[in-house]
Amino acid sequence: MSLSYRARELAKRIAFRSPFLSWLSRPGYAYNLEPGQLAVLVDALNKTRRLTGAVVEIGVARGMTTVFLKRHMKETGDMRRFICVDTFTGFLPTDVAYERDKRGKDEPELGGFAYNDPDVFRRNMQALGLDRIDVIQKDCGLLTKEELGPVSVALLDVDLYLPTKRAIGIVYDALEPGGIMMVDDVTEGTVYDGASEAYFEFCRERGIAPDVVAGKGGMLFKG
Q: How far is CA 118 from CA 33, 60, 87, 171, in A?
């Protein structure tokens, strides 16, 4: 056993027991999606393996969910195209203004996600050994059928009303028969419940029965 290894283990032991450093040893949950949502997404990947369309994640933040899904795909030999879409500059000012002026939201979280950068995102994925990821820097409402191509599984996680409203129909219409889509933050009474409003509106407009899993994942299925 090397000296450096023993030193690391000693440091962990001290931190674990120190009342001032115990937070360093405290386990945490790394995902913004609930465990039930992640389970449903893994199940969706497995169920759609016969399809050839892309797996699409819109709204990637640091990429924690990207890593989770891509790790599963890599371990199962799933070679489908994986598309990540984000502004990589945070929410658009017009979308934030709508939340404040029309929906009465004025929380600090509306200024979030501006730290992101597409080149850093790519490098981080490559450093983790995760390839076959196409990164598109764009407002999700400006996506085209040509960029997406057929879609087998999609996660739409853009939080606010307007971007969810703009993108939900684009992505749903790109789903292959048998494709599965999840809209995150379908929960009333939160800072990001604009996504919930847009999801239920879309279901009413298309005559689709809403289906919410794990308390916040709005499901859509292409028959």
A: 22, 10, 9, 21
CB 13 within 8 A of CB 47: no
Apex CA 126: angle with CA 139 and CA 66, to 5°? Answer: 50
CA 220 distance to own-chain centroid: 15
φ, ψ dihedrals at 52, nearest 5°: -110, -5
CA 17 from centre of chain: 35
Q: Which amino acid is at 174?
A: A
* Environment class of 82 (CB within 10 Å of its CB; exposed 0-12, middle 13-18, buried 19+): buried
The per-residue pLDDT for range 49-95, each reduced to its tens digit, is 999 999 999 999 999 999 999 999 999 999 999 999 999 998 899 99
Give pTM, 2 decimals.
0.90
Q: How do the domains of the chain map onto residue ranges?
A: 1-29, 31-221
- Taken in order 42, 123, 132, 117, the sign of the CA dihedral is positive
Residue with tokens 């879309």: 202
Residue with token string 């699409």: 56
**Residue position matching structure tokens 């404040």:** 100
Cβ count within 10 A of residue 2: 7
Instruction: Provide CATH code, domain 31-221.
Output: 3.40.50.150
Beta bridge partners of 153: 55, 180
